[in-house]
Amino acid sequence: MTTPSPEKSTPDALRAQVAQVLAAYRHPTLKRDLTVLKALNHCALLDGALHIELTMPFAWQSAFEEMKESLSAELLRVTGAGAIDWKLSHNIATLRRVKDQPGVNGVRNLIAVSSGKGGVGKSSTAVNLALALAAEGGRVGLLDADIYGPSIPAMLGAAHERPTSPDGQHMAPIMAHGLATNSIGYMVTDDNAMVWRGPMASKALLQLLQDTLWPELDYLVLDMPPGTGDIQLTLAQNIPVTGALVVTTPQDIALTDARKGIIMFEKVGVPVLGIVENMSMHICSHCGHLEAIFGSGGAEKLAEQFNCALLGQLPLHISLREDLDRGEPTVVSRPDSEFTDLYRQLAGQVAAQLYWQGEVIPTEIAFKAV
Ligand SMILES: Nc1ncnc2c1ncn2[C@@H]1O[C@H](COP(=O)(O)OP(=O)(O)OP(=O)(O)O)[C@@H](O)[C@H]1O
């Protein structure tokens, strides 16, 4: 076979060649192909090197790295280029919110992380997921709505921080590990929050969401209070959520409560993006032995039953807890670890699921409604 001469390709022919190779690429986060997504922004041959620029509407960094590995040889072959210079940018889509509610200033998409039961690792998942979404290319914020146990400030190593108000009405978010964050925990330092009654708590949370001066965010992760009571229902109904995740352990009792969580979101029309199984396997820190101490297979069955995705499975491992206790979550303190890989895969799944289940609203319109 003769190698094509790069100089002979017209810009249109080159674009068609590149588009054809991209269109054949399959990945678990792509329901349709990259050309349907209009991801090919620019391609050109310069001094024998092929320059390709993609723009994606959802956070896609890890998948992009996989794609480069998989397509580079074929692209060099069909175009005759000697090297490829790849670029990825994100222009993350704003997706339709529940009941077309007006959005929160600056926030494109709001993802609620919930659990039917306390202590299953909802906050740990929310923190590492938010950091993983940022590593995947998003601009990300994290709001701790877990009013009865605001643990996010400590998990981010920011418990000593206090929000400031530049205008006496709004709060500037606390920046921690690159995330814009806010939490009742930054304001209430004793047990006062514990005695708040339902309506007071929901009102305070809605205010926290609306009165924070969020910077431009692609994703705001909301760590919901655990359970499926009145507060959770009020929040699910009144917050302009784009989609929700339900975190569970594989234990029967947690799964029963997770089922209630899914039903609650369905009732108020919040799309359930899927289930995250936390503590799915215990990994021994000495010998690496795996043990399903909370049982196995339950979250998978639950996902099947509700026809939603099992978005990720995170093991129970001492280092995940230690990193959070130190205020250095695993995704930032061990970026090359297998755990970070799992969180980044989860983030990729969440971002893709959010995009594919939704309806894109043009950003100008999305923000005019605010
Ligand atoms: N996969 C895991 N491996 C090891 N430890 C974990 C894991 N997930 C959570 N933990 C630890 O379990 C404890 C409870 O987790 P977390 O606070 O995230 O749960 P939660 O569901 O948000 O609880 P609550 O309902 O009280 O808000 C924390 O100490 C956390 O570090």
TrEMBL record:
Coiled coil: none annotated. ATP binds at residues 116-123. Keywords: ATP-binding, Hydrolase, Iron, Iron-sulfur, Metal-binding, Nucleotide-binding. It comes from the Bacteria. Gene3D superfamilies: P-loop containing nucleotide triphosphate hydrolases. GO terms for cellular component: cytosol. InterPro entries: FSCA_dom_sf (IPR034904), Mrp-like_CS (IPR000808), Mrp/NBP35_ATP-bd (IPR019591), NUBPL-like (IPR044304), P-loop_NTPase (IPR027417), YlxH/NBP35 (IPR033756). Pfam families: ParA. GO terms for molecular function: 4 iron, 4 sulfur cluster binding; ATP binding; ATP hydrolysis activity; ATP-dependent FeS chaperone activity; metal ion binding. GO terms for biological process: iron-sulfur cluster assembly. PROSITE patterns: MRP (PS01215). SUPFAM superfamilies: Fe-S cluster assembly (FSCA) domain-like, P-loop containing nucleoside triphosphate hydrolases. Binds and transfers iron-sulfur (Fe-S) clusters to target apoproteins. Can hydrolyze ATP. Homodimer. Belongs to the Mrp/NBP35 ATP-binding proteins family. This is Iron-sulfur cluster carrier protein. It comes from Sodalis ligni.
